[in-house]
Amino acid sequence: MAKFETEEAIALYNVDRWGGGHFSVNSKGHVVVMPTGSKSGTVDLMEVVEEARSRKLEFPLTVRFHDLLRERVETINKAFASAIEEAKYENVYRGVFPIKVNQLREVVEEIMDAGKPWHFGVEAGSKPELMAALAVHSDPESLLVCNGYKDTEFIRNALAGRKLGKTVILVVEKLEELTHILKVAAEMQVEPQIGLRVRLLSKGAGKWATSGGENAKFGLSTAELVQASDQLQGAGLAHALKLVHFHVGSQVPDIGTIKRATKEAARFYAKLQKMGHDLGYIDVGGGLGVDYDGSRTAFDSSTNYSLNEYARDIVYSIMEVCDAEEVPHPIIVSESGRAIVAHHSVLIVEAFGSIEKGGGPETVNAAPEDPPIVNEMIEILDDLGKKNRLEALHDAQEVREKAQAMFDLGLLDLRAKGRIETVYWQIAGTVVEMSRGLAYVPEEVQEIETAIGDQFLCNFSVFQSLLDHWALGQLFPVMPIHRLNQRPDRNATMVDITCDSDGKVSKFVDLEDVKATLPMHRWKPGEPYYMGFFLVGAYQDIMGDMHNLFGRVNEMHIYLDEDEDCGYYVEEVLPGGTIGQVLSLTQWDVKELGRRMKAQFDAAIRSDRLKPSEAMRLLDAYEKTLSSYTYLNFDDQIK
């Protein structure tokens, strides 16, 4: 196979654009991770794969780089600090991590620890999240922001945090909540700190645009804000209103949307301040996007702005309005979860087979008993050239349709039909190759290129590990993590091991548009082929379902350490879900399953269908399988 230079591989998969300085390809043709953005600390993903195999960890495998988490926390805090200093803004930034983006304990604890120098806080939107947030939150100068609808139990626990000296702000999502919060606070004899979520006219953009705007699920209208202000003043708690909150949507691709929403919210902040409230915070919510495709555009899976531009525009937009209204600059809060956690997680899956179009012999000859239509197709291939490629393609399509009609009538046997199909795909593939590099490629040829792509069979579940891709069409960077010193010779899609036809990845990132296939290397029987899904640390870990009862995948947690020979160490390994564990989640009792199977094997022994020793071996294998990984194991098929 032709040698493939490192720079070519990086360019082919746009690694230098979506990687953000954290991913590259080394001279071995392996993907490497640079958690701190410095090439002095790199991790070869194939070395991680070998380490996993030595530990008998099966694939799929999630690899978390905790140094990368810390680097992202540091980067966002420094971006706001720089913007504040540049603008001479007269207050500070106090970010919070919205744990709905990734509730895994190891992730949340790492972020909270990394954020200590900047008093980085946490946001919770449900009772379970609040329980975790209260326990992990320990810095009285950092915020614990409570979003989402709330009941008495939620409010009581949040106010218990106030009694512990925490800066807990209960954000009112609907007007009735304010009455409820004040009532519970009076019963507990604690003064609440209140936030109001403003329902802006400014709408978001991208796939999550409907989460903002005047028809949003959460937030108060202008009239309701006035009512809330009057209610607080009437209760003698005007000073308890501390925060104005808004949320314009997740993964906002266009900076213009963010600027408009921020200015509108800042105006609400200023007006409420002038109405006698001792406000101190403005929470710009989430929305800071990740450039998944590297195009740096306003496309859904990209952003047309950088982190530094985002921070500067937030700071300047708030300052401009507050200066015009002559009110003090508030502390700026953001809930940028996706931008913090997306990069730290890589999902590695193993391809265990491929389906190729026209996978028959390279040379096809008609058999004496074949009808003339077989020779017609072979002659089209023999006469194919650059000047008549479209004509040849059309002729081949006509012959193929004719062959199908003959087969439907019973006039064509399977062998002859197989030869016609093989030659047709050879013609189609040749036409595609002849069209590469042309200034204009006809749409029908582009469609053929997609149709002739291979399907790589991959040992994972889209529904478990890439739910956003299946449900919302979210794009993630995907590429082989090895063999990148060889030029890819196939174009393919990826299918998972679920029984659902939607269990596939057939949309891939590209600089200009969404690609229907991905360049890959021909799959070789007996040789493992590993693919990486990148930037999957946000939402995917927690939102996946268990379609076909495929459970949580195995995990490895990596930390850089210059004292180690390889420059890093595996801090923790978390086993994925076992068959017994996922069955128990659907009310199957593992012991009862074993009891039922034993009864069946005992009956087989009594009826002489099985010898006792064989029956016990089979029963033992059944029980061992219940404690095994839910995904497929191909170790015995690898050379």
In short:
With 639 residues, the chain is an alpha/beta fold. The protein is built from 22 helices and 21 strands.
Give the tags.
639 residues; alpha/beta; 4 domains; eight-stranded parallel β-sheet; globular; ten-stranded mixed β-sheet; 22 helices; Methane Monooxygenase Hydroxylase, Chain G, domain 1; Lyase, Ornithine Decarboxylase, Chain A, domain 1; TIM Barrel; single chain
How would you sum up this structure, described in words?
The strands form three sheets. Strands 4, 13, 14, 15, 16, 17, 18, 19, 20 and 21 form a ten-stranded mixed β-sheet that branches. β7 (143-146), α7 (152-163) and β8 form a beta-alpha-beta unit. This protein has 22 helices and 21 strands. Helices cover 41% and strands 15% of the residues. With 639 residues, the chain is of the alpha/beta class. It has four domains: 6-66 and 345-356 and 453-576, Lyase, Ornithine Decarboxylase, Chain A, domain 1 (Beta Barrel); 89-336, Alanine racemase (TIM Barrel), CATH 3.20.20; 372-450, Methane Monooxygenase Hydroxylase, Chain G, domain 1; 580-637. α13 packs parallel to α15 and α21 packs antiparallel against α22.
Indicate the percent of residues in helices. Answer: 40-55%
DSSP summary: helix tally:
22
Q: Can you summarize the main beta sheet?
A: 10 strands, mixed
Q: How many extended strands?
A: 21
Oligomer: single chain
Which parts are unreliable, with pLDDT below 50 for 5 consecutive residues or more? Answer: none
Shape: globular
Distance between the termini: 21 Å
Percent of residues in beta strands? 5-15%
Radius of gyration: 30 Å
